[in-house]
Design goal:
The complex is a heterodimer of chains A (about 270) and B (about 290). Chain A folds into 3 domains: about 50 residues, no CATH class; about 70 residues, no CATH class; about 120 residues, Alpha-Beta Complex (Outer Surface Protein A, domain 3). Helix content of chain A is about 55%, strand content about 10%. Chain A is built from 12 helices and 5 strands. In chain A, helix 2 packs across helix 3, helix 3 packs antiparallel against helix 4 and helix 6 packs antiparallel against helix 9. The longest helix of chain A has 21 residues. Chain A is elongated and about 80 Å long. Chain B starts with 8 loop residues before the first strand and ends with a helix. Classes of the chains: A mainly alpha (about 270), B alpha/beta (about 290). At the A-B interface, helix 1, helix 4 and helix 5 of A face helix 2 and helix 4 of B. Bound molecules: fe (ii) ion. Fe (ii) ion binds next to loops of chain B.
């Protein structure tokens, strides 16, 4: 008995395989056989011909390619024709997994960032820039955020509650500095280690980016991981080769006060 | 086939292009319901769910998802189904619907409505999966007939027989998209009314009507990107005359005009719908 799911996999192959656009035209039977189709299913699809399969491929790939491009316009522009090739490879080796169309670009970027890092002919900052480009929408739509304030003042022995939309992103390049330039004139971002805190304002829902100093970044990473304030402070000082002295404490208290005013820090966890 | 707590008449899909005007109250009293895709609102924070919450207070909501992959391979995604159940428990109505299709195999999600083979084995498989979804969501499901551009693999039966087979095996309702029937009839050269006479009309709980566009000289595609053709309105009438008051969604996903223009289309469609409802009532009185 033939596999009842083989036709589904064969169609998926026609939609995703890199070589399908030409293989469907030149060797439909061979292509569908390689996808596992046999018997009456194979004969029916060979008889139907490649036209509608190609139409499906154009529709499915076009929609996903346009969706991703809309989220990473700078990177797509920098890649030029290569964007379509990268997308094609993505469809073959990975393809979207999420049920939410709006999360497809982030899946693509997660895949591409690793790959582009190994490609010396691409700008070294490309992966960082792609990650930065999708951040605003990712945080705007993040499921968390808007949690109630705890009503408890900062206590050294307890963790802080932090708004669920907040996340830290580390980059090797100051990619945020190229935001605002015309898409087709994106300058090369400075090669400078950068940590951005990104969060969504609780009332306006606007997304904000805060460029953190290394020690504020280290502290924030530990607080987001749920460390009590004192542990996080000591850890941040040692992470950045500094001392837990008055100057350090004053700077960090100032930083946390600012985050409270922004509605990112919501008080000590009870 | 009227049910309690079910809006009847012409409704619109909630699209971001129409949202501001709807929020301003411009659709108040003009539409019977809003149809929404839970995927656009669930598993999401920020302004979008906040805005939806306000609209859900003002309009009856009908839920219709896109990504369940009822005909797919492999188990349903537990996270997605859990989010869906929470969403429907809060906003859902008498049923939830998705499409009689697959959206990807082996974990892939291709975000399109892809055909499944018209075979007995496939009908049983998808019916089992629909029953599973009904259990997991704790509410009845409707399945929507899709536009298909090619039958997948060897067909043991025609599409209408397949749809009827799935409905009976799953014991579920039908979200009848008459534009999809029309598009398929043109693309595959069959009589759309023969199709309508093959399916169990008593299982129809909701209708979709829409416009479509041309892909090439041999094929129409279901883009929901144009006004509804008179032939498609006639099919809606034919069905409503036989089943009575039902929620009917006017779908528009591309080339969305301003709300005022959409509402003119709603009113024109409503006139056709009301005439069909009146004929239904008259037929019943005679019987
Ligand atoms: Fe539809």
């Amino acid at each position: 008995m033939t596999d009842p799911l083989a036709p589904l996999r064969a169609l998926q192959g026609a939609l995703c395989a890199r070589d399908a656009a030409s293989a469907l035209r030149t060797d439909l039977r061979g292509f569908l056989s390689r996808q596992g189709l046999e018997g009456a299913d194979l004969e029916a699809m060979v008889e139907a011909g490649p036209t509608r399969l190609l139409a499906y491929r154009t529709m499915v790939q076009g929609r996903l390619r346009r969706t991703i491009k809309a989220y990473i316009p700078r990177v797509a522009h920098l890649l030029g024709n290569r964007y379509a090739q990268e997308f094609c490879t993505y469809m073959e080796v990975r393809a979207p997994r999420t049920h939410y169309l709006r999360d497809v670009p982030a899946e693509f970027v997660a895949w591409a960032r690793e790959r582009w890092a190994t490609m010396p002919d691409l700008p070294a900052y490309l992966g960082d820039l792609a990650r930065y480009e999708i951040l605003r929408d990712e945080v705007a739509n993040a499921p968390g955020g808007g949690e109630p304030e705890t009503g408890q003042a900062l206590a050294l022995d307890r963790p802080l509650r932090i708004d669920g939309s907040a996340q830290l992103q580390k980059f090797a390049y100051a990619v945020h500095e190229v935001a605002g330039t015309p898409i087709d004139q994106t300058p090369e971002p400075p090669a400078r280690a950068t940590t951005l805190l990104v969060y969504r304002n609780r009332k306006t829902h606007r997304v904000h980016f805060v460029d953190l100093t290394p020690r504020a970044g280290a502290l924030m990473r530990r607080l987001l991981a749920g460390e009590p304030v004192q542990v996080a402070l000591a850890g941040a000082a040692s992470d950045t080769g500094g001392q837990l002295n008055d100057e350090f404490l004053a700077a960090m208290v100032h930083f946390l006060t600012d985050l409270s005013e922004r509605g990112v820090v919501l008080g000590a966890e009870p | 086939m009227q049910q309690k707590n079910v809006p009847t008449g012409i409704g619109l899909g909630l699209r971001s292009r129409l949202m501001k005007a709807i929020e301003r109250g411009e659709a108040d009293g003009e539409i019977a319901f809003l149809e929404i895709s839970p995927e656009n609102h669930m598993h999401r924070g920020g302004s979008s769910p906040a805005r939806f919450l306000k609209l859900a207070d003002r309009f009856p909501i009908i839920t219709h998802s896109l990504a369940m992959s009822l005909g797919g391979t492999g188990p349903f995604d537990a996270g997605y189904m859990g989010e869906m159940k929470r969403f429907l428990d809060r906003f859902g109505g008498a049923w939830h619907s998705d499409h009689l299709c697959f959206c990807g195999a082996d974990g892939r999600a291709l975000h399109d409505l892809l055909p499944i083979p018209f075979t007995k084995v496939c009908a049983q498989r998808v019916a089992d999966r629909i029953r599973e979804v009904q259990d997991r969501l704790g509410r009845p499901m409707l399945i929507e007939n899709i536009s298909y551009y090619q039958a997948l693999g060897h067909s043991e039966m025609d599409e209408a027989t397949f749809v009827a087979e799935v409905l009976e095996r799953a014991d579920c309702g039908l979200l009848l998209d008459v534009n999809n029937v029309y598009v398929n009839a043109k693309n595959h050269d069959f009589d759309p009314y023969a199709w309508l006479k093959t399916i169990p009309l008593h299982r129809v709980r909701q209708l979709h009507v829409a416009g479509h566009e041309r892909w090439d000289e041999t094929m129409l595609i279901d883009t929901h990107g144009a006004e509804v053709l008179p032939e498609v309105q006639d099919m809606m009438s034919w069905v409503i005359e036989r089943i009575g008051p039902t929620p009917v969604l006017l779908e528009r996903d591309r080339h969305i005009p301003p709300l005022a223009e959409m509402l003119r289309e709603v009113r024109a469609l409503d006139a056709v719908y009301q005439a069909a409802v009146a004929r239904h009532a008259a037929n019943r009185a005679q019987a």
